Amino acid sequence: LPGQILDQWFESEPLKATLATDAVIGAMASPHTPGSGYVLLHHVMGELEGQRGAWGYVAGGMGALSQAIARAAAAQGAHIFAEKAVCHVLLGRDGRAQGVVLQDGTEVRSKLVLSNASPQITFLELTPQEQLPKDFVQRIRQVDTRSPVTKINVAVDQLPSFLAAPNTRDGWPLPHHQCSIHLNCEGTHLLHQAFTEATHGHPSSRPMIELCIPSVLDPGLAPRGCHVVSLFTQYTPSVLAGGRPWDEQARNAYADTVFDCIEAYAPGFKASVIGRDILTPPDLERIFGLPGGNIFHGGMSLDQLYFARPAPSYSGYRSPIPSLYLCGSGAHPGGGVMGAAGRNAARVALEDFRHL
């Protein structure tokens, strides 16, 4: 449990609760859920530019990271087809993957196929089911993909001024504006309460909120004097109580709850909002192909990690289809912007390629 880990190091309950958010980030779990301590360690075990446990902003927004990878690949001779949806994996008579078929009917031939789509999309939608072992298909169907995350992107015309650290008269960013700001994290009991509400089908009445203002460090993201605020919030169930849909009314009602919470910490925040984009779990699934809206392609619980990710006997990036590999967050070691699954999968694929 994360509480046991944090109790060994810290005394302050607000500090412990704030750090405990990394134990439940993206997970339909409470800090009191057994196994969530691993998720906490998962988020601090990496490093950035030699600093262990550090995180960073991507200059130009997260899309700039994808563009950098694309440029590096193109420099090595890769051909990139953007905005081209894949219909299915192309199999040869011997059952090996030999490319993909696009939705417009175009066949792209390849000796190897690596998929960074989720295991659900890769094996349940893009691969002929008759070519897969039934127990493997059942395992993929049973992966826990519940997600508590609703992401809200906000445009504001001034920096939020927090009661705990008010803005200066000149309105210049202060140190805390350059960091990750955690709200409704005064105690771990608040996180557990928010989780409990969601398990009953109700969006949290006092959500866990992680607030970042990337435009403070990267002014090019917003017009002069304005800012973009990224809100990572939970807990919101994928399916609301009574089977109610996440329609515009439900979306806006939850967003209003989030904004009311921020207003209590930073009066004037709601008046500064000039636009917002609300992405509930179904939206994250529909737009980005995240199963259940899960940012990790599947829960990071101990029964779905290491040798069991995405399925027992298939944690080494190879799949039941020869020459088809899984290289996304649904593969070992799981989610996070670290590239470990892709790097490991590439090494396995290259090893196989040499023997073709």
TrEMBL record:
Superkingdom of the organism of origin: Eukaryota
Cleaved signal peptide residues: none
Classification via PANTHER family: PHYTOENE DEHYDROGENASE, PYRIDINE NUCLEOTIDE-DISULFIDE OXIDOREDUCTASE DOMAIN-CONTAINING PROTEIN 2
Protein family membership: Belongs to the carotenoid/retinoid oxidoreductase family.
Name of this protein: PYRD2 protein
Gene: Pyroxd2
